[in-house]
Design a protein that fits this description.
Chitinase A, domain 3, 26% strand
């Protein structure tokens, strides 16, 4: 997929979130407005436009908390990560926080979807989810 041109609309695909994730992430982002306002506002914006479904109706190919996924950003190498809450983040283990620019962009996307996102240094890129795997239920 090519990078959008200046005259093309931004990529804002439909998002789906389970009710529990939506509630917990709304609380997390609201609490983060003082400490990390840019990412918190971005996450709140994504939560506002998401379709919320019951947790047992969540499609298997949608990124949710705890999902393992492969993604690519603007021609860079594929990355495989697990989306986690901030306290669980560990870049060495491939666990990225939902309270980072890329984490906030990934939540609610389906495999194959792309979205525009801003890197920490302000560059706009296109992020594409390639594959999503859900955690085993114990």
């Amino acid at each position: 997929m090519s990078t959008p041109k200046a005259n093309q609309p931004h990529l804002t695909p439909k998002l789906v979130l389970g009710a529990a994730d939506h509630q917990q992430l709304t609380e997390l982002a609201t609490a983060g407005l003082d400490r990390n306002p840019d990412v918190a506002e971005e996450l709140l914006g994504e939560l506002d436009r998401a379709s919320v479904v019951s947790d047992d109706e969540m499609p298997e190919d949608v990124v949710r908390m705890g999902s393992r996924l492969r993604y690519r950003a603007d021609g860079s190498a594929e990355r495989e990560v697990t989306l986690v809450y901030p306290a669980e983040a560990n870049i060495d283990e491939g666990k990225i926080s939902v309270m980072t620019p890329v984490g906030a962009a990934l939540i609610g996307l389906r495999s194959g979807q792309s979205i525009d996102w801003l890197t920490r240094d302000g560059r706009q890129q296109v992020l594409t989810v390639l594959e999503v795997t859900q955690p085993a239920v114990v």
